[in-house]
Amino acid sequence: MNEKKILPLTGAYAAAEAMRQINPDVVAAYPITPQTPIVERFAQFVADGIVDTEMIRVESEHSAMSACVGASAAGARVMTATSSAGLALMWEVLGVASGLRLPIVMNIANRALSAPINIHCDHSDSMGARDLSWIQIYSENAQEVYEHNLLAIRLAEHKDVLLPVMVCQDGFITSHGVENVGIFPDDIVRNFVGEYEPEKFLLNINDPVTFGPLELTDYYFETKRQQEEAMDKARKIFLEIGKELSRITGREYGYFEAYETKDADVIIVVMNSTAGTAKVVVDRMRADGKKVGVLKIRLFRPFPYEEIADVLKNAKVIGVLDRSMSFGANAPIYSEIKNSLYDSERKPKLQSYIFGLGGREIYERDIEKVFEELLEGKVSNKKKYVGLRE
Amino acid sequence: MDKYPEFPKEKHVKKKAGWKEIPIGGMITKAGSSLLNKTGTWRAFRPIKDDSKCIHCFMCYVHCPENAIRSDGEKVKDIDLDYCKGCGICARICPVKAITMKEEAEFNE
């Protein structure tokens, strides 16, 4: 473990601080609430000459991601950030980034999608992008945002991975909330992240290559199969790089954080900031002798099916809390948890909960109520809603 | 250009290569491989150049989207039918109407 500097930072500034230490060659971004303070802070670093980054100001997120794709193909280390409608506008190019195997790292301050227009947190934006071959890492607090960025750049650029990565944090709740964040020394972090040395890149005139040619019925399928292979490998490599990062930070980077799950009768599965609230509730209920726990998922893509089944299989009841919906179908996290348990011999009962859409608050008492309900064995095949008015 | 660089004689991947064999992301790892794609097979109309009319203004040369008009550096020579897709831009742009488009069917052996 190394001596760290404790700074009062928002999640957004924690992301910018990681970007400062990573010192990417290119950042192309367009402001959107609640992501704006990430690139705003970073732009200040650029203006002050603290980083060597070429900052490209563009006219839209479609252009932002397009510029990132071009820069990354040219051989640069590239980062960006967005939210909600910005991510939606990038959609087409998100698939280009992953399809061309470009290791771009993008911070997401999770925000609801329009309409109705809403600036507050839910996970509809990044959940909608879950099938676009981007690795997705979710962060509970500003400290995790900072550390996940360091992990993400190494994971993205690993020669057996070469996939873009989203580092997600809850819009406003995390992105604008000030916390104490431990920042590790620049030299140690820079030594950890190293230099990006692409094997093939556009600006290498000694080894000219073409990015993004046409592939029809002949090779497209094979190229997509390669992406699945890269995702598969990313699982193991995520843990390896996480172990390396642990030596600097003293924290662990598993696929998830299993909090008081070992002997738990009831486990709540949740991502991002709400996991923190749920852990407080677990502590209180444990003090009352109730066997409850929380599974906070860190790595959502690729999804760690077997490992999650292993943690959940001994519980009696699982409640899955999704902050987004897949309208007309099971909610995203709930679907994956159900998938995970299909191959397990022991199958706990499952209940799907939707909460917090459009930034609707979720309180300790709401989570406690969910735990109490699940302890009583009240489960069904129907979605339940937390904090919704009937 | 005095001399062309050496272009690949064969494609960077073998025919029907599996997913483990091809470069990632659909990348083409050898420059100039488009020369191996004979776009002339797409042609429905063939440009025929009347050398007696040609004034060597090079209008066809600069407008051809496929670089299929060949030159010896001073004069417009001929049209490379391996790559000419038969778009007819050369015939349209020619100020002295030295190029006419004829149906490819007329040349069937």
Descriptive account of the structure:
The complex is a heterodimer of chains A (390) and B (109). The longest helix of chain A is centred in the middle third of the chain and has 30 residues, at 220-249. Chain A contains twelve helices and 15 strands. In chain A, helix 3 packs parallel to helix 4 and helix 6 (142-157) crosses helix 8. In chain A, strand 10, helix 9 and strand 11 form a beta-alpha-beta unit. In chain A, strands 3-2-4-5-7-6-12 form a seven-stranded mixed β-sheet, sandwiched between helices. Chain A has a six-stranded mixed β-sheet with strand order 9-11-10-13-14-15, with helices on both faces. In chain A, strands 1-8 form a two-stranded antiparallel ribbon. Chain A folds into two domains: 5-249, Rossmann fold (3-Layer(aba) Sandwich); 258-386, Rossmann fold, CATH 3.40.50. Chain A has helices at 11-22, 36-47, 61-74, 84-99, 124-128, 142-157, 186-193, 220-249, 274-287, 305-312, 332-342, 364-375, and strands at residues 5-9, 26-29, 54-57, 78-82, 105-110, 135-138, 165-170, 179-183, 256-259, 266-270, 292-297, 299-301, 317-322, 349-355, 384-386. The mean pLDDT of chain A is 97. Chain A is α/β, with parallel strands linked by helices and 390 residues long. Chain B folds into two domains: 1-37, no CATH class; 38-107, Alpha-Beta Plaits. In chain B, strand 2 (69-71) and strand 3 (76-79) form a beta hairpin. The longest helix of chain B has 5 residues, at 59-63. Classes of the chains: A alpha/beta (390), B mainly beta (109).
Layout of helices and strands:
The complex is a heterodimer of chains A (390) and B (109).
Chain A: E1 5-9, H1 11-22, E2 26-29, H2 36-47, E3 54-57, H3 61-74, E4 78-82, H4 84-99, E5 105-110, H5 124-128, E6 135-138, H6 142-157, E7 165-170, E8 179-183, H7 186-193, H8 220-249, E9 256-259, E10 266-270, H9 274-287, E11 292-297, E12 299-301, H10 305-312, E13 317-322, H11 332-342, E14 349-355, H12 364-375, E15 384-386
Parallel strand pairs in A: 2-3, 2-4, 4-5, 5-7, 6-7, 10-11, 10-13, 13-14, 14-15
Antiparallel strand pairs in A: 1-8, 6-12, 9-11
Helix pairs in contact in A: 1-2, 1-6, 3-4, 6-8, 9-12, 10-11
Chain B: E1 45-49, H1 59-63, E2 69-71, E3 76-79, H2 89-93, E4 99-103
Antiparallel strand pairs in B: 1-4, 2-3
